[in-house]
Amino acid sequence: GKVLVSGANGYIAMWTVKILLERGYRVRGTVRSADKGKFMSDYFAKLGYAEAFEFAIVEDIVKEGAFDEVVKDVDAIEHMASPFHFNVSDPQEFFKPAIQGTVGILKSAVKNATRVKRIVITSSCASVLTPGLSVPKVFSENDWNEASPKEVEELGSKSPGASIYRASKTLAEKAAWEFYNQHKSQVQWDLAVINPPFVFGPAIHDVTSLKSLNTSLQSWYDVVVSDSPKTKEVLGQTIPWVDVRDTALAHVLAIEKEAAGGERIITTSGSTIWQEWLDAANSLNPNPLPSHKLAIGLPEISQGEKVYLISYDKSKEERLLGIKFNTIVETTKATLEDFARRGW
Ligand code: NDP
Fold first, then answer.
1. Ligand 1 close to Cβ of residue 29 (< 6 A)
2. Ligand 1 atom, smallest distance to 125 CA
3. ipTM exceeding cut-off 0.95 for this assembly
4. Which of 12, 18, 145 best tests ligand 1's pocket when mutated (most atoms within 8 Å of CB)?
5. Is the CB of 237 under 6 A from ligand 1?
6. Ligand 1 centre from 285 Cα, in Å?
7. Which residue numbers delimit the NAD-dependent epimerase/dehydratase domain (predicted)?
8. Which secondary structure element, helix H or strand E, spans residue 167, and what is its range?
9. From ligand 1's centre to the CA of 167, what distance in Å?
10. Phi, psi of 144 (to 5 degrees)
11. Counting beta carbons within 10 angstroms of the beta carbon of residue 189, is it exposed (0 to 12), middle (13 to 18) or buried (19 or more)?
């Protein structure tokens, strides 16, 4: 079969394309410019997939009908393109591509996709959680982040970037389900949604410098590798997480598993505090990133009982996808090795 992947040059999407190709799918990836497409073609040609991979340029996913052509001959769609950073103050800068991009690809599928059986959308745990809790809570797929859209509605361009991002993901996912429910009687496909928390692990997308790292891996670098101050507040912060390779696999399984249809699925390895990542890095001998003396942090805060303010119910993922997730140590090792290969 052939799979369309939007935002194909991104951190999670590149791994998703790679796993799809390894499993025998043909892939059409959409990117915003030819140079981003060329990076992908070159990368996958080197792995022997020159025939199986192609890219298409979709310059502006907000534009009406942007995906009309590219959905035509594919069997499944992975919609992954969406802005993810916190340096934003105008909510529309995120809401437009997140919401209109998502609804737009579904509209194009209604209009032109005659072969599509499953559409998978990359949402986020940002659409599930309630930010700023002071007592621990276990969230599940039944939960929705009602707080961030409300906050952004009230604060407008004074909203924190993180709230704008979370609201964009929540509103985009809601819009997807609403659109699907309105159109399901007239289409031959169904919808599945993947909700990952913080995604960490090695990068295969085009990272030209530390500054151009994608947002989640940037946070990981800042805490685990850079010499930023390691305060108790930072190191004790709850970080629910998942390895990027497992996230990608979840997207592939979500098109393969019949039972994933109609479901939003939280895909997480579990919750951590940042200190556990320093512990993991320091447990590796030899240090995979010899250019850096890794900080020890405050090992006492990860001893004994830890408080995770946010954790996620994994039972739906276990039932529907059953991924064997990478451990903290495995992901840390692979990530530091990746940084070392880049000469960082
Ligand atoms: P990246 O920043 O690496 O990838 C984002 C992708 O979306 C890129 O292809 C980017 O294209 C594209 N994109 C961004 N803004 C726009 C826009 N305005 N119009 C069109 N395309 C756009 O991030 P990730 O791989 O981490 O994110 C991929 C998806 O996963 C997103 O939907 C994100 O919300 C979601 N997610 C990520 C998590 C994480 O921790 N990384 C956690 C949960 C969900 P370009 O390169 O041209 O900018």
1. no
2. 43
3. yes
4. 12
5. no
6. 34
7. 3-262
8. helix 161-183
9. 15
10. -130, 140
11. buried
Neighbours of 303 (CB within 10 A): 10
pLDDT at 82: 98
Q: Are 299 and 236 in contact (CB under 8 A)?
A: no
Strand pairing partners for 110? none
DSSP secondary structure of 30-71: EESSHHHHHHHHHHHHHTT-TTTEEEEE-S-TTSTTTTTTTT
Give 83 Cα–ligand 1 centroid separation in angstroms. Answer: 5
Q: Is the CB of 7 under 6 A from ligand 1?
A: yes
pLDDT band at 158 (very low <50, low <70, confident <90, very high): very high
Q: Is 84 in the pocket of ligand 1 (CB under 6 A)?
A: yes
Å from CA of 261 to ligand 1 middle: 23
User: Is the Cβ atom of 105 under 6 angstroms away from ligand 1?
Assistant: no
Q: Answer whether 170 contacts ligand 1 (Cβ < 6 A).
A: no
Give pLDDT, residue 292.
93
Q: How is the chain split into domains, by residue range?
A: 201-241+269-344
Share of the chain above pLDDT 70, in %: 100
Order across the sheet with 198-200: list the strands: 198-200, 238-243, 270-273
Span from the CA of 123 to the centroid of ligand 1 (angstroms): 10
**pLDDT of 5 over the 90 cut:** yes
7 CA distance to ligand 1 middle (Å): 7
β-pairing verdict for 238-243 and 198-200: parallel
Tokens standing for residue 17: 């394309």
Residue 140 backbone phi and psi in degrees, to 5: -135, 180
SS (H, E, C) 308-335: CCEEECCHHHHHHCCCCCCCHHHHHHHH
Q: How many CB atoms lie within 10 A of CB 40?
A: 24
CATH number assigned to the domain with residue range 201-241+269-344, chosen from the 4 options 3.40.50, 2.30.29, 3.90.25, 3.90.1570: 3.90.25
Tokens at 314, concatenated: 């994994």
How many Å apart are CA 310 and CA 279, to the nearest integer? Answer: 20
Residue 202 pLDDT level (bands cut at 50, 70, 90): very high
